[in-house]
Amino acid sequence: MARSPLPNTSDRIEESEIVEILGDGPVSRVYQVWNPTLGVHRTIKMLKRTASHAAQVRFFTEMQILAQLDHPGIPAVHRVGSWNGCHFFESDYFEGDSLAQLIQEYGSFHPELVCAIMVELSELLQCIHTEPIAIDGIRYFGILHRDIKPSNILLSPIKGSRLIDFGIASVSTNNSFPTKERNKIVGSIPYIAPEMLDAPRATSKADIFSLGAVLYEMSCGERLFPETDFGQLVRDRMNLASFDLSGVFPGFRGILASMLSRNPSDRPFSSKEIAETFRKLLRKWSSDTPRMVIVRRISGRMIRPEK
Questions:
Q1: Structural domains counted in the chain
Q2: What is the pLDDT of residues 172-184, one digit of tens each?
Q3: pTM to 2 decimal places
Q4: Cα–chain center distance at 268
Q5: DSSP state string for 36-72
Q6: pLDDT tens for each residue of 122-157
Q7: Strands 143-144, 170-171: parallel, antiparallel or unpaired by DSSP?
Q8: What is the CATH number for 113?
Q9: Do 123 and 20 share a structural domain?
Q10: Pick from 132, 122, 208, 125: which is nearest to 172 by CA?
Q11: C-alpha 270: how far from chain center
């Protein structure tokens, strides 16, 4: 019998036991595994043989990026290898619900929880936007995630917020990043910045716009751009110049309007500025650290606003 092109739950990847398949796309498959030697759960991302050359380049770029970024909210790479000729890398396994799952279940979040999440995510973005990265021996200054969205943000009842899936992240060249690959839009349309649709290059402020779209969704319990038809969604994204923020907590409206500015130069100067704003807002509810607020509210399921 021919071996499966990728391991299934009955297989092992070297010494690691497969617990479950977390995701399966056209380019790669992602597993939760148990390493009995170390006594820890990990994540393994394995490249499919059918992946295009461009997809292979992105896979190895992601691997090198994660191996160099140093932040507790980003999965660290622990080893690389191959299974039956398929390349893989093993990284931290983050336990918790995705922001998308929590929004679907609870709707809008309590402002205290929103503030705490925004502080952690903004500080995390500041790290990836400014961290020196070497890819294939060439040194770059910072990366653009290009896929900030609720399904790529995890909230742990023990360790707070995490950002995953750097599969389409791009390194900075002259403080800017390409917006497209092979003339195709990169990222998730409901969350990407306008310049990712109509400009050849973007800056780290594109991630700030995406984080603003996530902030809106946490505050209102619904997407900033709810359309499901792709063509209509793109047209609305290109034409809309302002947003109805009446459903957003009043203290958030000013910073959110700035983050969602169509002109990147009108957005906050950096993610650090956003983190400082929400750290001050958080003090209205609690003197706890952002991590303590997230752990308390997620573990106790105190997520919705109080009536």
A1: 2
A2: 776 666 666 766 7
A3: 0.92
A4: 19
A5: TTTTEEEEEEEE-TT--HHHHHHHHHHHHHHHH---T
A6: 999 999 999 999 988 889 889 999 999 999 999 998
A7: antiparallel
A8: 1.10.510.10
A9: no
A10: 132
A11: 17
